[in-house]
Design goal:
Blueprint lengths: L21 H6 L12 E4 L14 H6 L1 H16 L31 E4 L5 E5 L14 E8 L5 E5 L5 H6 L17 E6 L2 E7 L6 E8 L14 E10 L5 E10 L13 E6 L4 E8 L8 E8 L4 E10 L8 H11 L21 E11 L4 E11 L2 E3 L5 E3 L3 H4 L5 H28 L6 H9 L3 H4 L3 E3 L38 H5 L7 H8 L31 E3 L12 H14 L1 H15 L3 E6 L6 E5 L31 H16 L2 H17 L13 E2 L12 E2 L2 H21 L2 H22 L18 E2 L4 H8 L8 H16 L12 E2 L15 E2 H13 L3 H15 L14 E2 L5 E2 L9 H8 L3 H4 L38 H4 L4
Antiparallel strand pairs: 1-6, 2-3, 4-5, 4-10, 6-7, 7-8, 8-9, 9-16, 10-15, 11-12, 12-13, 13-16, 14-15, 17-18, 19-20, 21-22, 23-24, 25-26, 27-28, 28-29
Helix pairs in contact: 12-13, 12-14, 12-22, 13-14, 13-15, 14-15, 14-16, 15-16, 16-17, 16-18, 18-20, 20-21, 20-22
EC number: 3.2.1.45
GO molecular function: beta-glucosidase activity; glucosylceramidase activity
Keywords: Glycosidase, Hydrolase, Lipid metabolism, Membrane
Amino acid sequence: MVSGHLFYSRKHSWPPDEYVSRATLQLLDFDDAAPPQQAWRRRLNSHANRLKEFNVTFREAIKMMRLGVRLWSYVREEASHGRKAPIDPFTRENCKPSASQGVPLGGMGGGSISRGFRGEFRHWQIIHSLCEGSPIMANQFSIFISRDGGNKNFSSVLAPGQREELQKLGDQGISSWDWNLSGQHSTYHALFPRAWTIYDGEPDPELKISCRQISPFIPHNYRESSLPTSVFVYTLVNTGKERAKVSLLFTWANSIGGTSHQSGEHSNEPFIGEDGVSGVLLHHKTAKDNPPVTFAIAACETQNVNVTVLPCFGLSEDAQVTAEDMWGTMAHDGNFDRENFNAGPSEPSSSGGTLCAAVSASTWVEPYGRCTVAFALAWSSPKVKFQKGCTYYRRYTQFYGTSERSALELVHDALMNYKWWEEEIEKWQSPILKDEKLPEWYKFTLFNELYFLVAGGTVWTDGESLAADEKTSSCSDHKHEKIADRDAKTTTPGKNSMSISQVDHITASTTSSDDEKLASISFSDNELAPANQERSKNCVSLHDDREHVGRFLYLEGIEYIMWCTYDVHFYASFALLDLFPKIELSIQRDFAKAVLCEDKRKVKFLADGSWAIRKVRGAVPHDLGTHDPWHEMNAYNIHDTSRWKDLNPKFVLQIYRDFAATGDMSFGTDVWPAVRAAMEYMDRFDRDGDGLIENDGFPDQTYDAWTVHGISAYCGCLWLAALQAASTMAHRLGDHAFAERCRRRFLKAKPVFESKLWNGSYFNYDSGTSSNSKSIQADQLAGQWYTASSSLPPLFEESRIRSALQKIFEFNVMKVNGGRMGAVNGMYPNGRVDESCMQSREIWTGVTYGVAATMLLSGMEHQAFATAEGVFISGWSEEGFGYWFQTPEAWTVDGHFRSLIYMRPLAIWAMQWALSPPKAILDAPKINMMERISASPFTPRAQNESGLRNFASPSNRCFDTSFFNCEC
């Protein structure tokens, strides 16, 4: 056990008055201008150190040499077709990763822009799957201050000095601006989805400034949370004896990151909107046939605030109005000419030039007075186009139409609604922030890890894809017609092919002979069958979009470009289920549909060079694809994931958890055939008939570089949990035959699992004889984690669960830098890190959070928070490595990261789930299927074909009889 004072137990770990004076906090303590006590903080003059990237050892490089050669060839082949490979370790960003990130802008799925803690706009992901990491330095907020008498004038960009760096780059434009902010008395405070920058007397010692950044991320609000917009609210407090004229300036380049601003054909256009909202539209024509983007920058004019614009200025010396000219005008006048609003659209820019725009908001602040100025940014790129042809409308177009000019309405509504957004955000966050039992670091880390749902490359569409030849349409009344699927004209499937809609109507509860028939069903070798074929009017499909939330994608990580990677979603999905459950159910329906599909196109798997079909029926796909999501799944091609042992159990466990948490019987009924198919598929991996699945001597699991032999603690535990969950779900749905089948198999498998792996204090890594077979795996109780999270009976005796967790805590956590790094994946019983492969020696941030959640569910609160705190210390604290708002998949004991901005750390929400489970979980029927004795023997066909009970849907529609084998 750990003794001594632990950081996690402190009441106020980061008190704000250590960063901002108490007097300033009191002056700003109105209108949410002061940051909350529970926030992550940095001083603006903090050094943004370079991050150290992971490298394989010589031994690992030798073992992976053949894989590396094949991967290199595959990356080059994809590049020859103009595509980016989903995994490309050979290409590095021009911008070296640094400890500079902050809260990203915008809602989910409309593209995102991150904003560093020092104020720079960076990590552009307006075009899906493309992340431009470098900041655009012309995008800035600046301030100009003059006082009565004219003897006190101040001007500065509101970001720490960059003049020397800009001059080195040869930039004769913005290097002429005043970069006078040292950042010594300025601080950044983050509590996603909001952030505060406090300028405590900088650049004017008598002016206190708060900039509050707000984005519409509101749990359970599926409208506002899809909007690509953010608001910046400046609160100005004059502590001087003279009134001050303050002009705030917002400058923006017509660019989506990278060098796109120099590609030409862009234009800017000033506007005066309703309710005093005025600004500039920046129309950006993207390269490579990507959909266009329109930005809107605006400020809200009031009785005390005057808004003016400069629609166009350039960064080169030959521009008609240069950046230096623009700055000179502001420094002299504090505003632009009102006539600029009448300028109309500019001429399209020429290639090589950079077109920028500026919005100024000016006000007088009386002595000891205060004033508020609000700016907003919005961007509109209505279409999402994937490289293999499918195009979709984004979710927000349901409310704002499909014109790029909707950016104007977005920016207007943001300025009108941001106070309501904040009220809703505070209602959501307040109970957790006020919970005195929770560590301070946990509170702000919990919320800040949600950054990934915005900055993780999310795409949120309004439904099905557009026709291939459909042109963009503008809808002034905010309505647009649903377009038929691009593949609607596909010919009728032949003898050996079947559309997804047909597969949807096949029950998975079949006899073995039926299963053999289904095994012959596949898609054609050339193309996946259409996903939007017309269905019976009286039936509900797996994706009838009954909840009207569209379809949602998020990347595994910005370096692993695969959508909704399922073995990782297993960890991350607690955040979606807790905050946006309808999105979680939508993703689950996508995978349920995929389970029953087969795609016979051949794929080369790079680990061993073998060929196999892309998608096997009954196998849960690794991901929903890369270049044609939903239509071409399994972009991952290192291993054949139809042979992985964790994907199917993870699917069953997530389905049951979601079913239990939402109490949605229609969801349970819809996906049940896929659950049965997924369970039945796993029969092939029980080769000795002992009820347990066996691993096949290669990395056939989420740890895809860590070989497993025989029965494994990780996959075996997941399998036991899946048997229990499937049995319970079958019972609740009335499929008693299958419930009994799973129950009997569980009772057969459990003693085998324990006899082969339990060593008296923990479960061995696997039942093989390799050097690491007795390693202590941090993730060995993943199945028990889900069992407890779903309020199912424990898989093992409580004493064994606690013993294994205590062993993990003492060895994997505390023996690595005193518990200050998280839980290392593998540890030998002698206390030495398992270095048998790159992943065994890594600390996985999301796994650490999952282990901590399992500890909480087992009543081990002390160990849980001490374990999770290691991720905070290494990733988020000032003494750590600088991974805030870019939490990586992994780091090593010496602090080298692998894969920044990664999905799995969202698993911190599994800790919150354990601390505060939803009512539906608490009230779920307490059924211990493993101890039930069947009332009478029956065969699988005793009740009906599947044993499924009939359910009447709320809308009085009946389910398709061929899909559910029920009579209406």
